[in-house]
Amino acid sequence: MYGHIKKRKRAIEFLQFLKYIRSLYSIRERLYIICDNFRPHKTEKVLAWAAQNNVELVFTPKNASWLNPIEPHFGPLKKFAVRNSNYKSHKEQARAIRRYIAWRNGEAKKGEQR
């Protein structure tokens, strides 16, 4: 699991995220990114960039978030990093979320080794 935490959720931040993910893989490898129907995911600039960079944005149907495989991970993340918290800043909250993701990825690797 990878988290990209930003203060704002506009198309420009989403495009930065896509460019980072794209940089991790060869351009010859087609990437499929599952998205909800949040407006910044569907701007002309984002869609054009995806088409030019061998990225297919796959949109879940409206009111069907349960079809997005990331959704089951949000419950535990909220439980361990967000719920009953009183962070003093966005930076502090982002740090807690990153710590949870690192812990979760470590536990997943332990499970693979068994």
Widest β-sheet, arrangement of strands: 1-2
* N-to-C SSE string, H for helix and E for strand: HEHEHH
Helix content: 40-55%
Distance between the termini: 19 Å
The description of the largest β-sheet is:
2 strands, parallel
Average the pLDDT over all residues and give the rounded result.
88
> How would you describe the shape?
globular
- Unreliable stretches: none
Radius of gyration over C-alpha positions, nearest whole angstrom:
16 Å
Number of strands: 2
Provide an overview of this structure:
This protein has 114 residues and is mainly α. The chain has two domains: 55 residues, no CATH class; 43 residues. Helices cover 51% and strands 9% of the residues. The chain has a two-stranded parallel ribbon with strand order 1-2. Helix 3 packs across helix 4. It is globular. The relative contact order is 0.14. The mean pLDDT is 88.
